[in-house]
Amino acid sequence: MFNQVAFIGLGLIGSSLARSLRANGLAKTIVASSRSERTIRTALEIGLIDEGFSDAADAVKNADLVVLAMPVCATQAVLESIKHNLKSTVIITDVGSTKGNVVAAAEAVFGTVPARFVPAHPIAGSEQSGVLAGKANLFDRHKVIITPLAHSDADAIAQVQQMWQAAGAEVLTMTVQRHDEVLAKTSHLPHLLAFSLVDTLARESQNLDIFRYAAGGFRDFTRIAGSDPTMWHDIFFANEHGIVAALDGFSEGVARLKAAIVAHDSDAVLGILTRAQVARHHFTHMLAGTAYSKTMNTKNLQFVVAAGGTLQGNLRVPGDKSISHRSIMLGSLAEGITEVTGFLEGEDALATLQAFRDMGVVIEGPKNGEVRIHGVGLQGLQAPPNALYVGNSGTSMRLLSGILSAQKFDTVMTGDASLSKRPMERIAKPLRSMGAVIQTTGEKGTPPISIKGNQLLKGITYAMPVASAQVKSGLLLAGLWAEGETVITEPAPTRDHSERMLRGFGYDVTTEGSTIRIRGGGKLTATNIDVPADISSAAFFMVGASIAPNADVILEHVGINPTRIGVINILRAMGGDLTLLNEREVGGEPVADIRVRSAKLKGIRIDEADVPLAIDEFPSLFIAAACAEGTTVLTGAEELRVKESDRIQVMADGLITLGIDAQPTPDGMIIQGGQIGSGKVISHGDHRIAMSFAIAALRASGTIEIEDCANVATSFPLFVELARGAGLKINVVEA
Ligand code: S3P
Q1: According to the model, what pLDDT value does residue 215 have?
Q2: Which residue among 488, 561, 615, 620 has the greatest number of ligand 1 atoms within 8 angstroms of its CB, and so is best to mutate?
């Protein structure tokens, strides 16, 4: 708390901060000076200040804190006039939109910037100005950047920081130079453009008409041209360097767009617009603290699922994740336009989509599951501007490894905390023997992955040590560019969507027993893809309907590719009541509606041949086992330890918490069926663990709380809504 705070200038920002100090009781007295007598009179009348002055030098005499809140170009003159009246312990701060010139002004006046001078910039405001426009909550949940210098006093920094935090702001620290660069682009340039556009139009002879018919777009774009001209005049000069650089960059961008329009280059125009649209949405989500897709929230979401209930009705779960990833990859690499319907708008597939946009592919959508991909051909990808971030998605990273190894440019791929722990050498190693230059990180060979471009790949013959569709697919994709034939043998059948889809895009891939062959040098031709519902998402409802009393659901349009139906085989072996209806083929993939009714499940020894065919479904199958009569034994599934979490350990921990006798083994689990109790379990950010324990509540004796559920949006956006609609008593709490 300050004894006396002096404001030099009481415009929108100064008066808002004064109001906030008052509201929070942070200043015993507040005084101010202003060049305008009226401002001082008004401020006194509304009780905003205790005393007012026309001369800044008088205002600062007894102040512990001086806030410079006048236009930035006046800084040097103001400091000059107040310098002999300052208390030795005073803290000085400012609110200016530029920092370089404020610091330079302080240097000019004091020789060196005083240690208790803490330059600051609240990123808040409105196009309104003046003492009456101020609001006590103007800074609430806004950012304030402070730009301390190397010799700045720690106590002074802390006090300025606390003052802004009390005003509700989030305080960030930056160097002076960085601040001016960033603000030139994010604030000064847009203001300049708004002022300039309005001025340009106002000069035209028919300006009245133009303004009369100006609709929302003009109004939105030019709102900030109503801002205070003196202030912006000062800012444009104060940050001349940064603004000119930003304007040059912008002019190049506009010239590119203009050239594309003049040349009728529809792809180039659409490319600019779609990239901008995505960036704009992404940026809105970032500011709102949410992630890329609408449903995913970076905050800790907790599922609270009350015991009991049942599942009823016809349900359509979202599109297949594996096919969605591949539709973007193959569509991007094909010649022509690929239209996708039923695309999974989950975080993982969106990460793949973003990666290809970053490499210059024009992709329209997704909108209601529809995506239009303007393929660039096998030689058409461009170097991305930054590292490709693929979030939680192992499929993106492993398949992209194959594609990127064959490009002409270098790339780096990074992922989130979970992906950063997952093994990547399994794909990097065989790619290296094809001639790729690819580097993983650390002893365990985890992400980030760096890949050098311009390598000539050669086909190899490779017997995969682990059954992994991701590794197989990454190698097949690299094989598109490799000289000669790539021959892969798998130790057990894994999902074959890559092979089927490559054929769908007109590429010759042969499968003979466990051996798959592809020859480089061909081309992919665009095709349309109807993505079936994901059997891995449907699995939660298959298990849920099997364990819940009086359940009867029909899961519509589910992909029943023979390499994915382990969950059906296993549930049936346990006594599950599953009927396949209306079996058909859609775009090279078998599809059916699956009716599932309550059943009395029994424990079984799971056939190891079903493990790769149900590799993603074990978390929910463990719940089925917990509800079955007798013992269920799983072996041969060590792969589960390197999924989005260690699914053996994490599921065993949760089951034990809920009172089930679950014994983890190195390659599986032994589960005694019993009564699921209640309690709090942790999903470790693994989407499938979160959804499995949610389903478990259908047979629990009490409420199950599940921590860390935001990642459900990676594969199953709207899980909660769909499950609730079917009868699960699920609620989401933001922790
Ligand atoms: C996938 C393959 C599987 C699976 C993953 C998706 C794919 O991984 O777990 O969710 O799309 O190829 P592995 O092939 O590594 O077992």
Answers
A1: 66
A2: 615
